[in-house]
Amino acid sequence: MTSTPFDTWQLATTRGWWIVQRGREILLGPDGGLPFGACPLFELDPLPVLAVGELDGQPCYAVALPPEAPFGVFFGDPKRLYDSLAGRARNALSRALEVLEWDRSHRFCGSCGAPTEQRAAAIVRHCTNDACRREHFPRVSPVVIVAVERGEEILLGRSHHFPPGIYSVLAGFVDAGESAEDAAHREIFEETGLAIRDLRYFASQPWPFPHSLMLGYQATYDGGEIVCAPDEIEDAAFFHVDRLPQTFRFPSTLSYWLIRDFCQRHGRDWPEPA
Ligand SMILES: [Zn+2]
Asked: Domain coordinates of the chain in residue numbers?
């Protein structure tokens, strides 16, 4: 039998931050931010609740609602909420979303197929097969995102699934057994045929859709002509700092920080669409 350290009834009077998922939606507070206060789910049957750390000295709780749960008007898009939060709150939301995804997708042991269970407040699911006893922890999937610069130009590309006209810096998953630096060189070469040099670490960012860790780099163009890999990207080009295309405008994202940093180092404000 699966057990968890808390349920919603036990926590009915406990104050904290509540990250409550229902399908693709997330519960919003009255101000549109993360809900804070007593458990907002006390009217429902007990639900397993995961303790996922703290934010500003208060506990954070994560819970996944059944799809038919009520409270319809207070749910919204988790990416929109993510984008509206500042650093620490954004990371707390990331952790909760990633732990919920892990909890949902590790109900059975990947080694032997037996059910798993949580036995304590720690974020680990244990295999219930005594011959196996494997422990399953949340995993993150590293992604490199690279701003390649050539003087006053920056390399931007667009995927087939981007909205029309939108470009961004290039990114790709780190392969098994690969360093982040090797992944940066490989991804840029695979997607555009270009060589890069002077790879410099910039910043990282949890990206909980569903469980990535974005590793941002800046690099300098080192040769080659752009030849797009058609199954990866639709277009890529170097754009002058004064003639940038439309880009995603989510201030919470590494791609935004990288393009803004490029502009600022060349004495420009955040780019306006061309
Ligand atoms: Zn097992």
From this structure: 6-105, 141-265
90 Cα–ligand 1 center, Å:
34
Listed in sequence order, the residues at least 6 apart from 242 whose beta carbon sits closer than 8 Å to its beta carbon are 152, 268
CA–centroid distance, 154 to ligand 1, in Å, is: 48
| Interval between CA 137 and ligand 1 midpoint (Å) | 13
> Locate tokens 């030849």: which residue?
227
Beta strand segments in the chain, E: 6-7, 16-22, 25-27, 36-37, 48-55, 58-65, 75-76, 116-117, 125-127, 135-136, 141-150, 153-158, 166-167, 170-173, 195-207, 212-223, 235-240, 246-247
Centre of ligand 1 from the C-alpha of residue 47, in Å: 25
From first to last of its 274 residues, what are the pLDDT tens digits of the chain? 344 567 777 777 889 999 999 888 999 988 889 999 988 777 777 888 899 999 999 999 999 988 777 765 688 999 999 999 988 999 999 999 999 999 999 999 999 999 999 887 789 999 999 999 999 999 999 999 999 999 999 999 999 999 999 999 999 999 999 999 999 999 999 999 999 999 999 999 999 999 999 999 999 999 999 999 988 899 999 999 999 999 988 888 999 999 999 999 999 987 554 4
From the options 3.40.50.980, 1.20.1250.20, 3.20.20.450, 3.90.79.20, give the CATH code of 6-105: 3.90.79.20
104: CA distance to ligand 1 center in Å?
16
Cα 118 to middle of ligand 1, angstroms? 14
Distance from residue 208's CA to the centre of ligand 1 (Å): 26
6-105 and 141-265, same CATH topology: yes
Ligand 1 mean position to 128 CA, how many Å?
A: 7
